[in-house]
Amino acid sequence: MNRAALINLSLLALFGLQHSLMARQSFKQIVNIPRPRRAFALATLAVLAVMALFWQPMPELAWHFKGAIAIGLYIVWTFGLQLILFGAMSINARELLGLAEPAPPEFHTPFLYTIVRHPIYLGAIMVLWAAPRMTHGRLLFAAAMTLYILIGIQFEERDLERTFGEVYRVYKQRVPMLIPSLQKPLPPQPPPQ
């Protein structure tokens, strides 16, 4: 493995470590931060800035599609971005961005969450991979972030089961994690009043 790949993998590991540790409830209890959501968002921004500053170019091409395939990939990329945005807006984008601290947890399933349990992650995976021009650096980033998402989902769902119990276990049985099924989606559950 070359030096650029090792540096980039280290940067990706830094992101994964920061993101995973600070998202855990046990971390929030041990490190008593007054505004944990804001601290999480600011720390994530700091790590992303470090990644952008020290990321090493790996310009060799893994693939480069043109024409109809490229257009199709741009469509998939755009759809993925929409999933991220609408998924965030339908739960609480202000909380996700660290602009508001989370309210006490309440379980509800807005529309996208009746089709897949993790529309934001699905959108992120689509954005990561729908690249007509994929360099080795971007491929490394896409592969590592996809792996991180798939591992992170397991931890997140474990936390959600602890928080919501049987309600979330039933939800997991009825709604697919990332790949929509051909079955009729659950009706959206209105937010509690």
Notes on the structure:
- The protein has 193 residues and is mainly alpha-helical.
- It contains 8 helices and 2 strands.
- The chain has a two-stranded antiparallel ribbon with strand order 1-2.
- It folds into 2 domains: 1-56, no CATH class; 60-193, no CATH class.
- The longest helix is centred in the last third of the chain and has 29 residues, at 136-164.
Count of domain modules: 2
Q: If you compute it from the alpha carbons, what radius of gyration comes out, rounded to the nearest whole angstrom?
A: 18 Å
Q: What summary fits the major beta sheet?
A: 2 strands, antiparallel
Return the average pLDDT rounded to an integer: 89
Strand content: under 5%
SS elements, strand count: 2
- The ordered H/E elements are HHHEHHHEHH
How large is the count of helical segments? 8
Alpha-carbon distance between the two ends: 55 Å
Secondary structural class: mainly alpha
